[in-house]
Write a sequence for this structure.
């Protein structure tokens, strides 16, 4: 009976961005007859709409493919998708933990790039067998043999049998399936042992509740079982189990060790079935959960406000809906003197923040104002208590502060050696403490720094990428808290403090930052009828100042020949402009000024 | 009952100035004839519609009315008098370009009753004039002023432009003094605005435009010099003996415009003719409605261009306005009349918007 596992292959596809991951996945779906070519394009195009409508991803985060191999046997191939950004590294690691192998795509026109290596090492960390695939051989610039040599030299993978394919034209893609069958080992596990199923993803569906994606490590699960989530002890009755197909969910009698599938159990929010948790059964519980679970907590916080106060309820509903499907998103109401009613939201990182912001704006048609992101600081007060602050508005009176702590991460930056100088400069600028540096290969360095989280949540990744022409990759994990000399920097416009622009910063950086913000504001606040002093202050002491000079003239339209339409239009235009402004005391500030302060870079 | 104004658009120019975006085509004698006939025709039909209306101003604007022959203007005037009730003491203005053949033109039109000439000086500095596409020099402008006087026309307006590329406070001072020395009764001083579709718009990057601050200084210098010289400011850009015609626009009074691109405000409705000379000549130009006129916002927006301001706001509204510190330096409120001061004129859009907030 243990034979069924011999014909299962669980794998992910890993690649540097734009090396052809999605296209190859599409071809695999086509080749295994999961979808007709005709439907394929439609699905790609309709992806977002369908996702919204049905609450599930059509091109699922995981999909089961049936493949009849050249040896005459039918194999069950489970393709598990992975997100590709450091904010979601934990999710990636859980997806990889659900596999025995990975298809590594390398673009034959580009060769090895940063994410190629970072992803490969991540896969190797999980003891995955790797099938290299050389892609884009249809392009004139392709040099597959040299790229194979590079892969052998740098990563040490044998590429003699690596398929040379064009995911675009479909050429040789069949060989990829053959390689998967050949190289990826079948799963192990004991279907008669107590159930241990690894959750690698969970999504909210408005009809079925949460759909939990699992890899069964040991045991079996079927509809009617009472399942237990080992991290929380929460119990649910299993409604349905089954397999993810390309365009539908296919219910099954049970899921057994080695298989990948889904469970529904009337779970209401994804936060009740978190990625990385272990599912077992109440009847025959496992002794211990699978290793590696951790609850992902938001690490970056910011205020999100509707640009139009009337949209507050709409924003609240939109956030609640997004949260159904996103266990890492948190939000609670907050009020700002400058921005009115809004929400303090928590995210995994800045990309996560951007994704949520974009979805709110695009899918829910909301116009938003976002405040400067913050991490959680621990403030030790003179009375011995400790307060955790993720919102500058709650920053205590400096006189009551004994000392402050900020979160520190262990950061590993992988890069070709020629960029080491630039990377070290960047880390130094960001208050990093150098730990060590290792040559993984002659062409690959692992630079290890300890960095304050608040120095990297913002634009670190972007700057790193631009300084290393995209070659460096970053991985980090929270190390803990460290004492730090923090101050709260306030912005005053015409003497009024703008709470939404305050933020907490290391004292050494305060002056430079204050000057930059003051300049940005000066450049982005249009001249008004009176002079506007911009002051940056720490605890009431002004450390930087700029002035927006009073406007001296606006356009004087001629009312020639009785054509007053021009003049009317001009006033209309000016009125429209005013609508996009926010009134702070006496001063009108355009949204762009906020954005400019937020986008403060180098 | 209040009298109305008549505006006749003459959409021809002999040469096209690089800053101007008003509707005009290149002058052509054949076209002139047809155009005058078309004006005569449309006058006949409009005369029936507005038979009960009295008109106390006639204004020939352009384009360049003086590139037509004096006879053409007279023909139009005759048609107007035939079809409309033009009051005997009406102000009749013709815009002239100094380089037109005014030796013949002015005596002819003066004889037909034209009593006001508006002359495009723009600048008394030859370099600036050349840049603005003006062929003739200041000497020619002096000659023209003499022609006017010899024809009995004493009500003369000169157009000046502020913010011309390369202009300085000194060169502006020369232009202003030229106006004062010439003894004209009126000066219009407009700031150059780079309009889309003009040569200047395309060449923007290469133009040595004075800074915003310098243009403001120029405006202040203009106001001071002209006021001191006896031409008192009565509107944002106008000084001296007020133009009875133009003042109708700012007082939200009625006027009828004839010709392609001409705007009208009659019987509470605003409308205009599309900028299409051929359609006008063929007689199939339909007026385009441009909404109702006379709303309070409009009266405020226009009336505040005048130094005399507006006297129709409620005391409660004036109180709210006077309490707004942000506009305090730009306005004055005196016995129920609200007006902008010189600083206020410079930022009139912003101040008027603020004021409108209290009226809605």
């Amino acid at each position: 009976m243990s034979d069924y596992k011999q014909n299962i292959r669980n794998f992910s596809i890993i690649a540097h961005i734009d090396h052809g991951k999605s296209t190859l996945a599409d071809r695999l779906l086509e080749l295994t007859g999961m979808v007709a070519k005709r439907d394929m394009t439609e699905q790609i195009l309709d992806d977002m709409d369908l996702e919204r409508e049905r609450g599930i991803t059509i091109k699922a985060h995981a999909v089961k493919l049936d493949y009849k191999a050249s040896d005459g046997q039918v194999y069950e191939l489970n393709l598990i998708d992975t997100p590709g950004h450091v904010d979601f590294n934990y999710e990636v690691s859980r997806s990889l933990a659900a596999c025995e192998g990975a298809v590594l795509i390398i673009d034959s026109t580009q060769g090895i790039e940063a994410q190629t290596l970072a992803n490969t090492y991540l896969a190797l960390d999980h003891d995955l067998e790797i099938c290299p695939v050389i892609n884009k051989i249809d392009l004139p610039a392709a040099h597959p043999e040299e790229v194979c040599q590079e892969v052998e030299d740098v990563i040490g993978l044998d590429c003699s049998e690596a398929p040379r394919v064009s995911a675009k034209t479909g050429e040789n893609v069949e060989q990829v399936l053959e390689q998967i069958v050949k190289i990826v080992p079948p799963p192990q596990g004991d279907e008669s042992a107590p159930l241990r199923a690894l959750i690698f993803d969970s999504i909210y569906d408005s009809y079925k509740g949460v759909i939990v994606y699992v890899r069964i490590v040991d045991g079996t699960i079927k509809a009617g079982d009472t399942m237990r989530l080992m991290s929380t002890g929460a119990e649910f009755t299993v409604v349905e189990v089954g397999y993810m197909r390309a365009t539908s969910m296919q219910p099954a009698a049970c899921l057994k060790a080695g298989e990948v599938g889904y469970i529904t159990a009337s779970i209401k929010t994804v936060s009740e079935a978190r990625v990385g948790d272990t599912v077992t059964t109440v009847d025959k519980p496992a002794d211990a959960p699978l290793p590696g679970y951790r609850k992902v907590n938001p690490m970056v916080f910011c205020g999100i406000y509707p640009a139009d106060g009337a949209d507050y309820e709409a924003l609240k509903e939109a956030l609640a809906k997004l949260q159904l499907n996103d266990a890492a998103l948190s939000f609670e109401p907050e009020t700002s003197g400058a921005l009115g009613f809004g929400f303090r939201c928590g995210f995994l990182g800045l990309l996560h923040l951007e994704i949520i912001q974009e979805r709110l704006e695009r899918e829910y048609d909301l116009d938003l104002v976002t405040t400067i992101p913050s991490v959680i600081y621990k403030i030790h007060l003179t009375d011995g208590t400790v307060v955790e602050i993720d919102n500058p508005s709650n920053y205590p009176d400096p006189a009551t502060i004994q000392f402050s702590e900020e979160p520190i991460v262990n950061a590993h930056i992988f890069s070709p050696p020629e960029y080491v100088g630039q990377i070290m400069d960047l880390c130094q600028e960001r208050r990093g403490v150098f730990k060590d540096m290792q040559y993984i290969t002659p062409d690959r360095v692992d630079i290890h720094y300890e960095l304050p989280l608040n120095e990297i949540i913002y634009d670190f990744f972007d700057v790193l990428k631009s300084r290393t022409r995209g070659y460096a990759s970053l991985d980090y994990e929270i190390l803990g808290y460290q004492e730090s000399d923090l101050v709260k920097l306030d912005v005053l416009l015409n003497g009024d403090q703008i709470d939404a622009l305050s933020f907490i910063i290391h004292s050494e950086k305060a002056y430079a930052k204050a000057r930059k913000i003051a300049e940005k504001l000066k450049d982005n606040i249009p001249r008004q009828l009176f002079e506007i002093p911009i002051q940056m202050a720490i605890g009431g002491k002004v450390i930087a100042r700029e002035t927006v000079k009073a406007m001296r003239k606006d356009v004087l339209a001629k009312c020639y020949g009785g054509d007053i339409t021009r003049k009317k239009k001009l006033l209309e235009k000016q009125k429209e402009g005013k609508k996009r402004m926010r009134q702070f005391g006496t001063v009108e500030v355009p949204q762009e000024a906020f954005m400019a302060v937020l986008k403060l870079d180098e | 009952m209040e009298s109305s104004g008549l505006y006749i658009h003459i959409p021809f120019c002999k040469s096209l100035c690089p800053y101007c975006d008003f509707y005009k085509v290149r002058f052509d004698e054949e076209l002139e004839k047809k155009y005058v006939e078309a004006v005569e025709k449309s006058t006949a039909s409009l005369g029936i519609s507005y038979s009960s209306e009295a008109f106390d101003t006639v204004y020939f604007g352009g384009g360049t009315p003086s590139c037509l022959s004096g006879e053409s203007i007279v023909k139009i005037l005759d048609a107007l008098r035939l079809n409309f009730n033009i009051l005997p003491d009406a102000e009749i203005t013709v815009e002239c370009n100094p380089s037109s053949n005014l030796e013949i033109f002015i005596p002819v039109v003066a004889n037909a009753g034209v009593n006001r000439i508006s002359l495009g000086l723009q600048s008394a500095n030859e370099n600036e004039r050349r840049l603005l596409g003006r062929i003739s020099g200041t000497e020619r402008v002096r000659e023209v002023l003499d022609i006017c006087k010899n024809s009995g026309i004493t009500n003369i307006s000169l157009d000046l432009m502020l913010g011309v590329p390369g202009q300085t406070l000194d060169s502006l001072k020369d232009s202003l003094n030229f106006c004062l020395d010439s003894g004209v009764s009126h000066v219009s001083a407009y700031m150059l605005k780079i309009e889309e579709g003009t040569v200047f718009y395309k060449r923007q990057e290469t133009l040595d435009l004075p800074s915003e601050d310098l243009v403001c200084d120029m405006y202040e210098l203009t106001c001071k010099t002209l006021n001191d010289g006896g031409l008192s400011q009565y509107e944002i850009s106008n000084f001296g003996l007020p133009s009875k015609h133009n003042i109708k626009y700012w007082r939200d009074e009625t006027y009828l415009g004839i010709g392609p691109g001409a705007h009208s405000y009659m019987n509470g409705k605003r409308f205009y003719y599309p900028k299409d000379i051929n359609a006008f000549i063929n007689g199939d130009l339909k007026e385009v409605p441009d909404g109702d006129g006379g709303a309070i916002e409009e009266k405020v927006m226009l009336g505040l261009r005048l130094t005399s301001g507006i006297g129709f706001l409620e005391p409660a509204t004036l109180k709210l306005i006077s309490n707004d510190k942000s506009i305090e330096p730009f306005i004055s409120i005196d016995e129920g009349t609200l007006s902008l001061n010189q600083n206020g004129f410079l930022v009139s859009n912003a101040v008027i918007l603020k004021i409108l907030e209290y009226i809605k």
The mean pLDDT of chain B is 93. Residues 29-49 of chain B form the longest helix (21 residues). Chain B touches chain A through 49 residues (CB under 8 Å). Chain B has 14 helices and 16 strands.
